[in-house]
Amino acid sequence: xxxxxxxxxxxxxxxxxxxxxxxxxxxxxxxxxxxxxxxxxxxxxxxxxxxxxxxxxxxxxxxxxxxxxxxxxxxxxxxxxxxxxxxxxxxxxxxxxxxxxxxxxxxxxxxxxxxxxxxxxxxxxxxxxxxxxxxxxxxxxxxxxxxxxxxxxxxxxxxxxxxxxxxxxxxxxxxxxxxxxxxxxxxxxxxxxxxxxxxxxxxxxxxxxxxxxxxxxxxxxxxxxxxxxxxxxxxxxxxxxxxxxxxxxxxxxxxxxxxxxxxxxxxxxxxxxxxxxxxxxxxxxx
Length: 286
Description:
By secondary structure, the protein is an alpha/beta fold. Helices cover about 20% and strands about 30% of the residues.
C-alpha cells in the first residue's frame, strides 16, 4: 500500500491522548484502543469511515512514507469547544516472509502501538463510504465482523442506540476471534457491548476457533448456521441491511455458508447481487 496510490489530500497533526491495551496481558495478540486529538477545529466523520495514518522514514519497501487506513472505532464525541477526537482500534501486526522465513514488523501498526500520550502523528481523511444508518428505524441490521473489523460496528451500534435512539429493527452482531481473549470490546479488559444486552432489539453472537492453540479457523459458519432460521427471515425482509467488516477472506466463508443456508451457490449469488444492487450489502474489508 503506497501513499501515491491514494488521493490523500490535506494532512493533519494529531496528538495521542491515550493508548490502552484492550486484550488481556495473557493474550498473545496485542490490540490497543488509541484516542487522538486532531489539531484542527473541525474533523467530521461517520460510522464505517476510516482515517489514514502516514508514517515517514526510510522503509524496507524503499518509499519515504507509509500509508495505512484504520476504521474509526467510536462516534465523534461532543468537543465543547475543544479539538475533535478520533478513536482507533489497532492490532500490533508482524509478518513472516513466505519465501525467506524472515519476520517483519508491520510498519503502521507497530508505530501506532508504540506511541504514548503526548506523541504527535500525521493523519488524513476521512475516507470511504460510511455504514449508512437507514431512515426507517424498523430496518433489520445484520452485522458480521472479524478481528479489528469490530471497530466500525462499535461506532455504528453506539450511534444507533445513543444518538438515533428508539431503534425498532433487529440488530444482530456476529463477531469472530481466535479465542475469547481476542474478543475485542467483549472481554474482561473492555466489554462495551454489554451495555446493549438489555435492549430488546440487540443480540451479539461470538464465533471462536474450536482449537485456538492449533490456529484452527474461526467457526463463523457454525455461528451463522445455528441461527439460520432468523437470518433467512432477515434476508427475506426487503429492508434488511447487511454490513461486513474484517479481513477479505471472510467473504469466502460467507459465500459458502449462505449458499448452504439458501440452497445453492447460484441462488445465493442472485440474492447477494440483489442486496448489492439495492445498496443493502456493504463490505469494509482489507
